[in-house]
Amino acid sequence: SNSDKAIPYYLSKVQEWEREHGQLISMHYLPHDAAQRGRWDATSIIQHFANAHLPAIAVPKTADVWNGIYATRMLLKHCIFHARVNRKPKVDEGDNVPLSGMECLEFYRTAGKGANGVIKEQPLHSEESHGADAFRIFAEAVNAGLVGKQGARRVNREEKFVPMLKQKAGLSLGVPNGW
User: Fold this and answer.
1) Residue 30 is inside which H or E element, if any?
2) Which pLDDT value is given to residue 158?
3) pTM for the model
4) CA 13, CA 88: separation in Å to the nearest integer?
5) Mean per-residue pLDDT for 52-70?
6) How far apart are CA 54 and CA 17, in angstroms?
7) How far, in Å, CA of 52 to CA of 92, rounded?
8) Do 86 and 95 meet the contact criterion of CB atoms below 8 Å apart?
9) Which has the closest alpha carbon to 102: 125, 139, 134, 124?
10) Phi, psi (5° rounding) for residue 13?
11) Angle in degrees, CA 60, 122, 113, rounded to 5
12) What is the largest CA-CA distance in the chain?
């Protein structure tokens, strides 16, 4: 959710998380425009991931954002969220404290009435939308068949997968039923 620093800073945070938890993330699913060069940086986000030896793929853009929102709703039925998803993430001193993952999902909504009183049929771009959109990108990756059944952890950088533990299916914990 933060955007005050250059991409390599955030990639170092991903690597720090992997070291801290003793787990390697098998794939990073990025928005469709991750392959484009940045406005201030000649290197694309996906190239930054490659330079950091982190596996990443740009999820193809859906024809309509509502397709992604529907995919998210369908995926939520199969999710169980760990309690730590409700906690604020750790940040470095001086950084803004982003919302928790659950807050982002709970506060995601459509834009209100415009200046002329017309209701906009688009999601509201706000502080909450970044975290919710990240989950939506993952749902779109699942929907597009980009997420394997092996699980989300890697044994090493050679892409050897650990079998996924059987998870309970059911309603998502902590997400309002109407979402």
Assistant:
1) strand 28-30
2) 45
3) 0.69
4) 15
5) 90
6) 13
7) 21
8) no
9) 134
10) -70, -40
11) 170
12) 55
